[in-house]
Amino acid sequence: MRKWLLGAPLAALAAVAATDMRQTRYPILRTFPVLGHARMALTAIGPELRQYIVAGNDEERPFTRDQRDWVYESAETRATTFGFGTDNDIEFLEGYPIVKQRTFSDVTLSARPHAGQQLPLPPAKVLGAARGRARAYRPESLVSISAMSYGALSAPAVEALNRGAALSGALHNTGEGGLSPYHQNGADLVFQIGTAYFGVREDDGRFDIDKLVALTEKHPIRAIEIKLSQGAKPGLGGLLPAAKITEEVAAIRGIPMGEDCASPSRHTAFHDVDSMLDLVEEIADRTGLPVGIKSAVGDMSFWEDLATAMVPRDRGVDFITIDGGEGGTGAGPLVFTDAVSLPFRLGFPRVYSVFAEAGLTDDVMFIGSGKLGIPENAVVALALGVDMINVAREPMLSVGCIQAQKCHTGGCPTGVATQNPWLVRGVDPTAMAVRCSNYIRSLRRELVKVAGAVGVPHPGLIGPTDVELARGTRDAHTLADIYGYRDGWGLPGEDDARAITEFMVASGVAEYTAAVTPPGIRPRAGAPARD
């Protein structure tokens, strides 16, 4: 018996060794049979070892441990304060943002809002007002949930995000996968039209505007977003792996089971700026809703042509969502996620400058996305001229994501980005909705605090001279200097600035007692910028 107990494991190892030496797929197993499996096992769990044991607070990507902890603490309404000073190497980091506080200001915060307090924080601009859209409106929240489709995310995750958006007054973008039942839990929606036209297409895959009009009449859709590209994989269409396509997902999208769902890389409903604007105006006329576009930034000729076409003001988009190349809710080839399209801080200023040169910035609501759900990143975006912040991975973290980076495999361990029946049960929509709402409220609260430090009544009035990017200990330059912004760029127009100042005072968030032009109002031509 004892010999059998010893012989069986040895025989098993011999069998494994023989198999390893015969296989041709892995050279390491042919040269080191049996032992090579130890290396493969360590490689498989390497990400987890680095995340939980090896990596420092600022080393992980795409979100550092400090950043994830801030989201988690915000979602749980725990204290988001950190003791003993920063552990960032400010003196040695390139491009580190520094917000310049003011010693004296006529603006004060009337109360320090607490983590769970609902804080009114709409954007400075009214969406669709510049073009006179019939259903123009001012969103309740400057922060909104960016495009993430049902299918890419699980049903309870989408429901949690929608309920969280409703609790916090935020908009919820449907993503290009169509309008699902899980998007219908109380939040106002932005309906996204992708290249495959899911939910609004004919049997042959072409865009059907009548279906879009019918959707807008039955559901709380407040804006239409035409997706041109996204930061995670610009130039490629969306891709939903077969492992994540359930019967319900297939029915909503009108696609077959058992194979990857790949959207076209470009639209068929239009082919250039001129035909795109014709479609924008047709949709706006038929629905009355603001219509905008979402795109990553690459070749600038598109943006120059768009601005030129909008100068006569007879056609135009109501909003532009710029997705930085660091965006990541869509899985894509590594070369696309790493090297195609400009990161937000390079891409957005280029687009904004084109529209500023054309005198069109007051006509367009600028929306930014791409890791902007972290307060300091959001402040930089607002100072560059963004009017609203779209967040995606950060709300995913708030409802349970642990940055396992398995979204594309269908094996997300927390149930957020999978359709596996066992795994999705980990997400309770009701409980996670509260966490999502808490996170959005906390981000808005932090932005208001920073605005108070800068001496302006609203985060949208933080300008490009109020933030500098440091180059280690060598020097630092304002955003205006770095990106060539002229006086008044990056700020809302005078009417919008005055209106949002009056709103913040009337809502009790800020107190403003000065008898001069409120801080943040764009100076007249030739007037000096704020210091």
TrEMBL record:
- Phylogenetic placement of the source organism: Bacteria, Bacillati, Actinomycetota, Actinomycetes, Mycobacteriales
Cited InterPro entries:
Aldolase_TIM, GltB, Glu_synthdom
Q: Which residues form a coiled coil?
A: none
Q: Which residues form the Glutamate synthase domain?
A: 140-456
Q: Which one Pfam family would you cite for this protein?
A: Glu_synthase
Instruction: Provide the protein name.
Output: Glutamate synthase domain-containing protein 2
Protein species of origin: Dietzia cinnamea
Name one molecular function that GO assigns to this entry: glutamate synthase activity
The alphabetical list of record keywords is:
Signal
Question: What residue range is the signal peptide?
Answer: 1-17
The text of the family note is:
Belongs to the glutamate synthase family.
Keyword Signal listed:
yes
GO BP of this protein: glutamate biosynthetic process
On the tree of life, the source organism's domain of life is: Bacteria
